[in-house]
Amino acid sequence: MFALQLPESIRALEERQFRLVFTAQATSVLGDNVVPVALAIAVLHLTGSATDLGLVLAARTVPAILLILIGGVWADRLPRQRLMITSDLVHFTSQALMAALLIGGVARLWQLILLQVVHGTATAFYRPAATGLVPQTIGRDRLQQANALLFLALSFGTIAGPAVAGILLLVASAGWAIALDALTFLASASLLSRLRPIGYVEVSEGRGFFSDLARGWNEVRSRTWLWVTMLDAAIFQCAVLGSFYVLGPLVAERSLGGSSSWAAILTAFGIGAVVGAGAALRWRPRHPLFVLYVLIRGVAPVIVLSALGAALWLIVPAEVVAGLGMGLGGTLWETTLQQRIPTESLSRVSAYDWMASGALRPLGLIAAGPVAAALGVETTLLAAAAILVSSSGLALFVPSIRHLVGGAPPGPPVTTLEPAAET
Fold first, then answer.
1. What pLDDT, on a 0 to 100 scale, did the predictor assign at position 207?
2. Which pLDDT band, with edges at 50, 70 and 90, does 417 fall under?
3. Angle, alpha carbons 331-333-338 (nearest 5°)
4. Quick one: which of 245, 362, 382, 413 is 20 to 30 A from 308 by CA?
């Protein structure tokens, strides 16, 4: 018999443990990208209020941000696989209940908000556990390739999910679209239950919760490249993405022909992210953080073009470039974390990273409108682009960012207390 051999760029999928994680995450990511469209239609049909829609969306986001540090600690204290399976089952339950309420025509706003709070809480535990688990499913020489494949799945999900939602809304209803999302989490939990991580899983014994949390922070503050990048990410999310995602649709509505133009811009970003993650399958730069900061500057042109009222045919390719930078840069960052942070602390550090990336974004979303009302849309967007270029430029003056070399530093394997095969 002849075994089918995969191309070198995707050989990570030949490793069964990673293949299970990849398939599980790709499935649930597709479902999660169905939800924003379906949930928006469901809430607007239910109450007709954009404010109510904002409350429902915030109900998912806020718990994920507030609780992610707790999730990070527990993901380093408990077997990560079990935590991810439990989170998937909670996700399934919340989405299945929501789907049943909507399909049955008995949904109330408070019920949707409560179920989204449950969903966001489970996400706070899933995310840091997933980051910590990936290095336990793949050989170190294929770690960047594995992360690139995961980013590819995420990027494809952002493109395919809304399309699937549109089809389901056309032939059925929002409730059935959310039911599909519920099933993807059940499928993910089933796949993860078959996983047997490589090596051992760290299990905390005899240490307090706050002691573990402090140890995670010590890992962050002891690495200048890490806390500087986390600070820069917080600025980027608040000042840059907050402004663009609020004012971008406004520019599209006023100057580019309406919502179809905004959809084209978002699709262009997804295409660019796919290309960027695809590039990361093969390219391993010697200085990944230096490349990351160069790439992140590629987001500035699309913001400037939007501010100046440029034509759509100019904005769309600029957004492809922005997506490419985010897809490739995100892969390099995730790989650097997994290579440079000790396995037993990785989930806590990734939780601090997730929090830095997300905590200030709601503030940016809230502030963008009032700032634009005071300064003007053009000035606000140009200021966001200037902040991006300045903050990334300052970061490049940090020696540990410019000179950090890709690849895991040599060191002994982590010794732990519970064998992964028993998880």
1. 66
2. very low
3. 95
4. 362
> Is 351 in contact with 72 (CB distance < 8 Å)?
yes
The type of residue at 79 is P
Whether residue 198 contacts residue 80, with contact meaning beta carbons closer than 8 Å, is answered with no
Residue 200's DSSP bridge partners are 419
As a whole number, the mean pLDDT across the chain is 84
pLDDT of the residue at 200? 55
What's the CA gap between 394 and 384, in Å, rounded?
A: 15
Answer positive or negative: Cα dihedral of 196, 200, 205, 210.
negative
Kindly report the number of other CB atoms within 10 A of residue 397's CB atom. Answer: 9
Residue 206 pLDDT: 52
> How would you label 119-138 residue by residue, b for 16+ Cβ within 10 Å and e otherwise?
bbbbbbbbbbbbbbbbbbbb
Tokens found for residue 16:
């069964």
Q: Which two tokens stand for residue 177?
A: 């679209």
Q: Give the angle subtended at the CA of 198 by the CAs of 351 and 282, to the nearest 5°.
A: 75
Rounded CA gap, 156 and 324, in Å?
13
CA–CA distance, 283 with 412 (Å, rounded to integer): 27
* Three-class DSSP category at 106: coil
Rounded CA-CA distance 357/233 in Å is: 5
Q: Burial code of 155-173, b = ≥16 C-beta within 10 A, e = fewer?
A: bbbbbebbebbeebbeeeb
Place of tokens 């429902």: 56
At 149-160, the pLDDT tens digits run: 998 888 888 888
List the structure tokens of 213.
């949390």
Residue 421 has pLDDT above 60, yes or no: no
Helix (H, G, I), strand (E, B) or coil at 187: helix
Strand partners, 418: 201
Please list the helix, strand and coil fractions of the chain in percent, rounded to the nearest 5, in that order: 80, 0, 20
DSSP 15: S
Give the C-alpha separation, 360 to 356, whole Å. 7
Using N-to-C axis directions, what is the helix angle for 346-358 and 109-133, rounded to 10°?
A: 140
